[in-house]
Amino acid sequence: MTSEQTRLAAASHTVTEKLNLFSPLTVRDVKLKNRIGVSPMCQYSSVDGFATDWHLVHLGSRAVGGAGLVICEATAVEPRGRITPDDLGIYKEEHIEMWKRITSFIEEYGAVPGIQLAHAGRKASTLSPWKAESRHSKVDLSDEQGGWESVGPSAVPFSPTSRTPHELSIAEIKEIQQKFLIAAQRALRAGFKWLELHAAHGYLLNSFYSPLSNFRTDEYGGSFENRIRFVVETAKILRAEWPSGYPFSVRISATDWVDGGWTVEDSVRLAEVLKTEGVDLIDCSSGNVRGGDKYPFAPGFQVPLAEKVKREAQIMTAAVGLITEPLQANEIIQKEQADIVLLAREMMRDPYWPLRAAQELQLPATVALPRRYTYAI
Ligand SMILES: Cc1cc2nc3c(=O)[nH]c(=O)nc-3n(C[C@H](O)[C@H](O)[C@H](O)COP(=O)(O)O)c2cc1C
């Protein structure tokens, strides 16, 4: 440990009284100094999957800002698994070097570096949203525009304008699982201490377990057990590879919010299975498996999902989605609705949100910021 890390670790011990947002959390051998995590946020700022200085600053500033956990954005395990041509990846050995720089910076400033391994499935091959004319339009890329063939459980597109995906054979499913495995090995060498499997938002793994996108008739489709097979097998492969001392979480879409779709009760059952495979925490997001579906957006609208999965499957959860206020976030932890709160857009607005939260809640966490700042504040 460097002297700065020792000081930050000591600071986090000062908040031990009642369970709150700044209580440390130990998962396996990894200790988070507080319950605040940066939710993965695609930056669509890479060329051929390489992380850049942008990622170092984007992620590094949120570590300096005081988050306990910084989960890097969806990182593709193969080029075909990128959402856009500008997505991050870990499908080449050469990707590791820049990641190392980023993870060591995040750790130096007291946060745990996490990576979200992802495959976009049938939602691949689109234009980066910040390059589109309207922030709400999803522009699909044809081959002529630099796009590529997408893949999915069935040859059914995400939306009427999306590409029709290639239906994966069982041999191809196994090949993709091997790519997740190799990506996890690289992630370890790149210095990540927390592994998250992206199985939400309609991307490949989610599209297999949701009945709204999987119309297969083999052992990867049909019954609940068959639809969850891809994600459960992948989790098992990753857990066997990932060091036993390091945490492993799975992000799910805990409900499709659609009649006849995946339900939160299904999520409880899935969480129970994933728990037996050594998954430590379920990160509970929702929706996005099909274009055009509507969601009940409201502050904290996904918190009840995290709470139900936590209570009924008896597993740690992360709550995410329209959590913006320190009091709101603190209450989620104090009421034990979730073990971690993840913030995305509010962290974009304010990388120092943890500092603001500590001040508003009058909890002594400002000392967990780098000395360069705290001596002056
Ligand atoms: C710009 C942007 C990029 C995102 N990228 C990812 C991603 O890579 N992986 C993921 O699981 N969720 C992603 N999300 C979803 C967020 O992690 C989060 O679940 C969602 O924004 C709701 O949280 P919020 O209300 O705090 O923003 C992204 C969200 C935004 C706004």
Assembly state of the chains shown: single chain
* Distance between the amino and carboxyl termini: 25 Å
| Count of discrete structural domains | 1
- Overall pLDDT: 94
Largest sheet: 8 strands, parallel, barrel
Level-1 CATH class name: Alpha Beta
Return the string of H and E elements. HEEEHEEHEEEHEHHHEHEHEHEHHH
Explain the overall architecture.
The protein is α/β, with parallel strands linked by helices and 377 residues long. The protein has one domain (3-374): TIM Barrel (Alpha-Beta Barrel). The protein is built from 13 helices and 13 strands. The protein has helices spanning 3-13, 53-64, 96-108, 170-189, 204-209, 224-227, 229-241, 264-276, 303-313, 326-334, 345-349, 353-361, 371-374; strands at residues 25-27, 30-32, 36-38, 69-76, 88-89, 112-118, 151-152, 166-167, 194-199, 248-253, 281-285, 316-320, 340-343. It has an 8-stranded parallel barrel, surrounded by 7 helices. The chain has a two-stranded antiparallel ribbon with strand order 1-2. A two-stranded parallel ribbon has the order 7-8. Strand 12 (316-320), helix 10 (326-334) and strand 13 (340-343) form a beta-alpha-beta unit. The longest helix has 20 residues, at 170-189. Mean pLDDT is 94; it is low at 12-16. It binds flavin mononucleotide. Flavin mononucleotide binds next to strand 4 and helix 11. Residues 39-42, 73-74, 116, 198, 200-201, 251, 285, 320-323, 343-346 line the site of flavin mononucleotide.
Quick overview of this protein structure:
The chain is an alpha/beta fold and 377 residues long.
